[in-house]
Structures are given as structure tokens and as C-alpha cells.
Design goal:
Number of helices: 25
Helix content: 55-70%
Structural class: alpha+beta
Length: 785
Amino acid sequence: MNLNRAHDWSPLKSPKAISLPAESSPKEPALMRELRESRPSLNGHRATQTGEQNNVTYNREASSEAMSLIRLIVPTEVTHDTVCELGELRNVQFKDLNPDVNPFQRSFVGEIRRLDEMARRVRFIRDQIEKEADKIQIRPADESIPLVSVGQGLPQATDALEVKLRDHEQRLIQMNESYQTLSDRARELIEARHVLRETTSFFNKPQDRGQEIRASIDDSSQPLLAHDEHEFQIQQSGNTTLDLEFIAGTVDSSRLAVFERILWRVLRGNLYMNYINIPEPFKDPVTQVESRKSVFLIFVHGEYLLTKVRKVADSMGATLHGIDADAQRRTEALKEINTRLEDLQIVLYNTGTTRREELVRVAESILSWQEFVRREKVIYETLNLFNYDARRKTLIAEGWCPTRDIVAIQLALRHATPLTYLKEESGASVPPILQVLTTNQKPPTYHRTNKFTEGYQTLIDSYGIATYQEVNPGLFAVVTFPFLFAVMFGDIGHGFIVLMAALYMIYNERKFMKTKNDEVPNHIHFKRKFNIYAEFLPQLLFLQSIFGYLVICIIVKWSTDWSKATTQPPSLLNMLIYMFLSPGSVKPEEQLFRQQKLLQIVLLVLAAICVPWMLCAKPYFLWKEMKAHAAGYSRIELRDDAVLRNEEEGEVVAATGADPDDEHDFSEVIVHQVIHTIEFCLGCISNTASYLRLWALSLAHAQLSAVLWNMTIGPFLKPAGILDFVFLIAVFLLWAGATIGVLCLMEGLSAFLHALRLHWVEANGKHYEAGGYPFRPLTFDETEA
């Protein structure tokens, strides 16, 4: 919660409307013509803005962009193209003017549903392309034929694309179903061929099969059937005659053991079973999952047991094939299956080729279609944020934009107007109207970055978004972050390795893309000068009376030649501790300079005075300000009534709503200040001591490097024979791998995290408000969106 008073966030002191320079048309609505002709020019707005920004000169370099709240009055005929142009410009963040309207009841919900269906079809087609076994190259969107995205040809282009996507989807679904049916039939024929082959092979060798009785799975000492060779009287006199009934089929190899066990228990061992695994796997054409099958041949006595076998086989997902007992008929059936299978494979090949040709053609445009659908959906979702003015037959939009970009927005609106709303077609040429509103609402925070500063700004934004036009710590992090990282990493050799890795990534950037803070200016800018006296000054005195004194003692100690001194160099840490435990007492052998006792007493008294100063001064100033602010409510309400009357008459509206974050009572002020004071006093000790990690990590890195060298490559630097050379090479590889993996990657990550903590906690925690929210402009860039 922001406990400071409401601020006048607007960079403008009076509302202005900016319209596009266009000639008045005889058929132009009177209200639109009046609004367009009665507004000041853009040059006047820019002069006002420039003059006010000069009052705070540090804003351009160290703070966020100056933002303006704008209102757009757009004729319905050009709303689509206007949003399209602003999306390409990427500098307007629109506000939702229909917060109470259900998403399914908004104006353009029908168009969004239509685009969702088109997006689903695009995803389906792209999934089909990516699932192809032989990879199909997808042409980038910028190399494809562009689609009409603005102007009068847009509806026809959208309709044509919808029809095209529907046709492609239907054809692919039909071909997938045909291919699936043909593949299933081919798999059945292949299984039948294997069954016939194995059955024929089994009957052709009866003398060898007589002794192959399966062992019981439950009892390895018992045969699967307690029958001897005479149980299945096999006679070979041209035709084979069997006294036993048999059944053949295929089953998943993973279920074969369970299948055999169940049959043994259900038939009580009254069966003979033979099986063999099919060598080649079967692949599902849809899921591309491979499965393996086994051919089984089961002999039982009687139709009753044969029925039981069929039921068990059906429950286990087995496929049964009708095999004739006559050898001649089996041979003829095998020939017929081979012929049908050859014809079926030809049809399968042709179907697969046709399907692939279809996907190859679609792959040339799929990304451009996907981009078109996504852009259109973003546009209509943005239009749903607008408010429809039935009286003016226009759409009204409000949003934030950088003040310096208003000229670019004006040009974009001008560029969008003649695309569909042509004078020759409609008899009018009404441009959109841009109004700059004065408001007390807090604008979003926007920092312009480049490839170099973007990374540092992201680190700061991860902690919190800067308050509007607060001094940006990201600018200082460009210097302080590499410095603190280097202090903790502390090795020029390992740093050179990191540098080479960074240069490699910079060199391959395009390839990879494809796969401290000044507090006083903040208070001055936000018109909170009392914070300088009530907060900044006592905090500075408290900090310097303790740690500023310690810094001076360090300098004195370093500049003293202790070899010529009569005393030993004192422990500064103990000196600081006893400064609080025994005020005014310094041992003679630990004294650094004269009058040190008196100085320590003065500094302690000053630090003690600063605590109630921080605790009471700011709440007192805020209490006085709240009383003065409450006295002005009636005047504000009268002004709001006047503003509403002007709006009904078509005049420019000045948004004067206060920021809800500024509403608070005095009890919250006191609680916040107590917590803030305690946190600052304790943080001065803990956060300052936290900087000892700079020394600790630097020392740890140096010691780890020395240990790794002495325990690996160090003892082998003077090889005496061939074996020593072999050990040297092996140890060198071990040392090099540990150097890169441990000393560069792990230690580098550790130094990075500690440097990040020093910025987030120790630095930003003291000086950075981080009470803002990010500027998220309309954009068609998928990564930024």
C-alpha cells in the first residue's frame, strides 16, 4: 500500500484533443467535424510537454518514460485497421472500458469464436505435419505469401482462409481414416499370413511336435498336458486328419504368459499350446506406437472346450483366424492373402503419398495462416475493451502511451484511416480523434531498453516494477552487477573462459533466437519534499554515525604504519561492538586517534535521536496533509459534475479519478512507519554485514581452485615415463572438466545469485519503492504478448 498522498501523475496540466489533419467532407457528421476542428494542434501539446519535462532533467536518463492517458474516438468503419496499426506500433496499452460485461456478452464474441475454430484447425493441421515420420520442412511466415490483413479485402481473405482450412481439415481427416482402415486391414492380413505359415510349419513336422509338451506354469515338474503322443492321432496320407480341434490366432507378446496361465487353469490342463513370436513389430498409424504380436496354436478336445478358449482369447484381446485343417486349402489361402496384401500395400503407399503431398503444400503457408489468425484474434479481443457510443456511432478507447510517442500514434491513425474508410466509397473521410486526458490515476512504468540493458532491467523488474518515474535501479545495475559478480568470481583465467562463452553466444545470437539508486530526486519529483527531512536525512545520519564511522576507522588503520607504532593494530570489529556495549570507554592500546571516546558518544547520541525522528516526523507531516486533503473534497466533487456536463455536450473529458492506492487512514500510516523504522534499523546491521559475502566467495573460489589443482594435475606435471604421460592426459581431462563444470558454471551461478541478492535485498530494499505496474502495450509479437 502506498501511504503517500495522491500525486498528480499527469505530465499535462490541461486536457487536449489531437485529431488527424484531414479535409472536411460535406457528408461528415457535424459532431465529428466540430470535435476535429475545435481542438488545438499537436505542436501545442508537444511544446507544453517539453517545457514541463525540463523541470526534472534526470527523467530522460534515469527514470521511466513520461506517460499520457489518451482517448481515441474511432469510427466503426476503421476500428479494425486502427487497432492493427497500433498493434504494429506497440506503444499503446488499452484499458478495459467494459469491466462489468461478461466476456461472452461483448460485441465481438462471434468473431472471436470463429477465429478460435480457425485456430483449432490450424493446430490440427500443424500437428499432422509434425507427426510425419519423414520431417516436412515448414516455411517461415516471412517467406510465405502474405494475407490481406487490413482494408476492404480483409473479409474476403478471412472467408477464403476459413474455407481453405475447413477443406484441408476434412481431406486430412478423410485420408487419416482411410489410412487407418487400410492399415488395420493390412495388419490383419499380415497376422493371418503369419498364422498360416506357422500352422503349416507345425503340421508339416508332426514327428517333431509329438514330444513338445508345454510345462505347467504353476508346477514346472508337470507337463502342460498329461497326454502322450497317442492323444492326437496324426496321420499323414496326403491329407492331415486330427482327432483334436484346434484354434489359431495372434495376441500381444506382453500378454502371452498371462494368456497361457489362464487357459491352463480354465481348461485344467486339457490343452496343447504352441506359439512363436512374430519378428517384425506392428506400428499404429495414428499413435505411432509399436507393438509386438505372437502366433498361437491351441489343440483341445471337443466343441465345449473350444468355446472356452474363444472366450478367454476374446477377453485377452487376441485375434482369432479361421484356419482350415486341409493343407491344400491352407496353401491356397496363403497365396490369396499374399495377393491381397500386395494390392493393399500399393493402395496404402498411394494414400500415404497423397497425404504427404497435401501436408507439404500446407506446410508452405501454415505459419502465415497461424500468424494471421492469431493477429485477428488479438485485434478483436482488443476491440472488446472498447466502448460503443451509439449516438456517435463510434468506438471509444482509452489507454496509456509514452508521451513522446503521441506523434507516432497520430501518424499510425492517419495511415489506418484511408485503408478501408475511403472517401470514394462512403462519401466521408472522418479520421479518428485522439484526446489527451488529465488524470490522477497512476500510469504504468515503461523503460526503453536495448539488447544490452534489457537483461539488467529484467533482473530489477523481477524484484519489483519501479514506481512511475522513480529513479530506475536498472541503469546503475549495468555497472554494479558486473562489478560485484567479478569481485566474488575473482579469477582472471576462469573469467576469460566465461568471456569466450559469452562471445560465442553473441556470435550465434540469431541462431539461438530461432530455437545503486539516488533517493532524493524521487522525493522531489513525487512532490514529497517532507520525506527528505522526515525520512532520508535521519536514515543517512543513522547509517553514517555507525558504519560511516567504521569506514573512517578502516582508512585510519590502513594509513597507519604499525611497524613504527607503540601499540598493535586494534580489532575494528571489537571496537564497534564495545562502542555499544561500553559507550565512552576505549582501551589505550586500541585507541586510533585522540578524542575517539568523545566522538563515539556523540555518534551514539545522534543515532539514538534518529530513531524517534524516523518514527514520528513522517506520520506528523502525513497527518497534516490528510487534513488539508480532506478539506478539498467538496471542490473536487463540484469540478467532477462540471466535467460530466461537458462530456454530455461533446467536450473533452479530463479524468480526475484518484488512485485507489492512495486511500488510507492515519492508523495505517503509524503501523507502516513503525514497521519501516524497525526494519531499517535492523537492516543497517544485517545488510551491511551481508556484503562480507564479497570477501567470502572470492576467498572460497581461490581456495577451491588451489585444492582442485593440487589434487589433480599438480602432482603429474613432471612425468618420468610413458605411463606418467598417460596419467597426465587423463588427469588433465579431469581437471579441465572440473574447472569448467565446478569453477566456472557452479561458482559462476553462485556469484550470480549472490550479486542478485545484494541488489534485491541490500540495495533495493533501502532505496527502491517498486510500487508500479508494467507497461504492456498492444503487440502482435507472440513472445512479448
